[in-house]
Amino acid sequence: MHDDAYFMQRAIELAAKGIGSTAPNPAVGCVIVKDGVIVGEGFHQQAGRPHAEVFALRQAKEHAKGATAYVTLEPCSHYGRTPPCALGLIEAGVTRVAAAMTDPNPLVAGRGLALLQDAGISVTSGLLAEQAQQLNPEFLFKMQQQRPLVRLKLAASLDGAVALANGQSQWLTGEAARADVQAYRARSCAILSTAETVKTDKATLTVRRDDLNRLESGELRQPLRIILDRRCRLTGHEPLFYSGGDIVLVHCGEPSSWPDLELPSELPRQVQRWRIGLDEVGQLDLHELFKRLSQEKLNSIFVEAGSKLASSMWHAKLIDELIVYQAPVLLGAGAKPLLALPTLTELASAPRWQWHDVCLIGGDVRMVARLVATSNP
User: Fold this and answer.
1) What is the dihedral of CA 213, 215, 224, 71, to 10 degrees?
2) Catalytic amino acids?
3) Which class for 191: exposed (0-12), middle (13-18), buried (19 or more C-beta within 10 A)?
4) Which of 72, 118, 160, 229 lies at a 20 to 30 A Cα distance from 285?
5) Contact between 129 and 74 (Cβ < 8 Å)
6) Over the stretch 65-92, which tens digit does the pLDDT of each residue have?
7) Which residues of 309-330 are buried (b: 16+ CB within 10 A; e: fewer)?
8) Contact at 8 Å (CB) between 267 and 230?
9) What is the pLDDT of residues 307-328, one digit of tens each?
């Protein structure tokens, strides 16, 4: 006879199938069990589509009556683009609901569980909570901090350089590392880069399904591409504009001075142009930009750009997580450094990071570090 943990683990496995296609919603899985047998299961596949509980109830049909529902996140209790899942479970006649964790979304936050209890359903919460939390770190961060999680991706050599002295950097890391970057892109709501990167690398900054073996369902969701184009260098002819997904171009100056974009007629999505002012040293005001981004439906932002933007974000204290891919190669004298950082005179003043994960990705090492809350970069 299987126990609760077995069925919740199955719900977590189902939820993981939605990672990369559900944002800004969380990835959620649901398993419905009656007399020790799974009679229905499902997972949230894409924002705007039915939630995990709906798919599981559809599969269970009349067998849901008197059954137990295992859900990786508290069932929702509010009307959004879909009806409340808590009501669906009540109407189906389930007698018990086990949730891995409560929903930190202020629109739910315990109300779903309370609604179930008021209907006479036995409710428990906290089963395999840690594993469930690992499904949606971006969603949880946004709900708790009321701003998106900012990840900065960097690739470096063993001697801490990002390019040769002549600027050559492609490809510093191997194919496995580049595929891993695709997985981070897929689970991000937005990618932040610069016009320099778009023009120099002919970058599209899109997610490619061929590089995502684990993406099994739903349409391929392209993250919003946010491109810092202070001097309006992009024309509309770049490959970026011929790929799927919405684009935001960030300019300075008055809109009346912005040149028209020659956008392709077959452009599948929308291009917005935002005006952001300058800071006290005459650079694009990153704090103003991120204040605006915090008002958007973005759980996380993945920063892919050169050392100039990376260094500016470091100075502005806007980085929550560093993802560094280190290649087993030495680039030698004159190579371009990873970041342009200020000179420090006291070791105690150096910002402290905490290792979150270190692993081999193909022939490279991926290191993930998170800023210690008490540090002061």
Assistant:
1) -140
2) 53
3) buried
4) 160
5) no
6) 999 999 999 998 876 666 789 999 999 9
7) bbbbbbbbebbbbbbbbbbeee
8) no
9) 889 889 988 889 999 999 999 9
Return the number of other C-beta atoms located less than 10 Å from residue 42's C-beta.
26
Residues β-bridged to residue 37: 34
Looking at residue 129, its amino acid is A
Instruction: Tell whether the torsion through CA atoms of 302, 304, 307 and 313 is positive or negative.
Output: negative
Strand partners, 31: 41, 70
How deeply is 374 buried, as exposed, middle or buried, from its count of CB atoms within 10 A (0-12, 13-18, 19+)?
exposed
Compute the residue count for the chain.
377
C-alpha to C-alpha distances, 256 to 81, 236, 281, nearest whole angstrom? 37, 18, 24
- 110-153 per-position pLDDT tens digit: 889 999 999 999 999 999 999 999 999 999 999 999 999 999 99
| Structure-token match 């800023």, residue found | 371
Tell me: pLDDT of 218 over 90. no
Quote the Cα angle for 298-73-213, to 5°. 65
